[in-house]
Design a protein that fits this description.
amino-acid biosynthesis, Aminoacid_DH-like_N_sf, oxidoreductase, 8 helices, six-stranded mixed β-sheet, 21% strand, six-stranded parallel β-sheet, 249 residues
Length: 249
């Protein structure tokens, strides 16, 4: 049986008072089965403070990682899982028994598990809005599902289109639209990615990694046109439970 006495976990990020992870794990640890476990936010203004954080908290067993450090934290780790290395982003860190820090990515797993039940034969290609750390996990999941994708950003680069190029033809070709940007997060809930929403149909999936609010303006706009919508809440639960398994293996 796992020794659950005095085991500390937490979330690494910036401006994370809204954190899903803290609420989720605090509630999980309220069960007497997990007595002795605790979870806290480690809100740092820049990634260079990470070394000091680790040094000052020698009893930490694991961390979740959120915006903006999913990529920035990698040089501070001793090792990456094979999938985290391929993805190029980390959202889970395990403090190993020999004192090493190993990075994992459970975002891809959470996204894949939450998207799969929605997929129909006509969902053949996806647009990924944003190019940050979260989008990398999404792209990896789509690779595993055999779904080709294109990134969308405010600046066109190689293999990336900008929002100005999205039109009716784009929506005909891409039946899955995934928002991996923070646009629309509380408190700026009236904001949404700059898309021609009139081209959404009932053949589209609109997926938003944001979970607060539960129905973003992006999702509302897509829903009005009949699209199937999904927020990031289930993804977060799946990735959190995957992280918990990693910390305990």
């Amino acid at each position: 049986m796992i020794d659950t006495l005095r085991r500390r976990f937490g979330l690494l990020g910036r401006n994370i008072s809204y954190s899903f992870s803290k609420g989720y794990f605090t509630e999980k640890f309220s069960d007497e089965v997990f007595a002795g476990n605790s979870y806290e936010n480690f809100d740092i203004s820049e990634i260079n403070y990470f070394t000091e954080l680790v040094k000052n908290n020698p009893d930490l067993k694991g961390l979740n990682v959120t915006i903006p450090y999913k990529e920035q934290v990698i040089p501070f780790l001793d090792k990456l899982s094979k999938k985290a290395a391929l993805i190029g982003a980390v959202n889970t860190i395990k403090f190993t028994k020999n004192g090493k820090l190993k990075g994992y990515n459970t975002d891809y797993y959470g996204f894949k598990k939450s998207l799969e039940p929605l997929l129909e034969p006509h969902h053949k290609k996806a647009l990924i809005l944003g190019t940050g750390g979260a989008s990398k996990g999404v792209a990896f999941a789509l690779d595993e599902l055999g779904i080709p994708y294109t990134f969308v950003s405010r600046e066109a680069k190689e293999n990336i289109i900008d929002y100005n190029l999205i039109n009716a033809t784009t929506f005909d070709n891409f039946k899955i639209i995934i928002n991996c940007t923070p646009v629309g997060t509380s408190p700026n809930t009236e904001a949404c990615p700059d898309l021609p929403y009139e081209f959404f149909t009932d053949k589209h999936i609109a997926y938003d990694l944001i979970y607060n609010p539960a129905e973003t303006q992006f999702l509302k706009n897509a829903k009005e046109k009949g699209a199937v919508i999904k927020n990031g809440y289930d993804m977060l639960i799946f990735q959190a439970e995957k992280a918990w398994k990693i910390w305990n293996k």
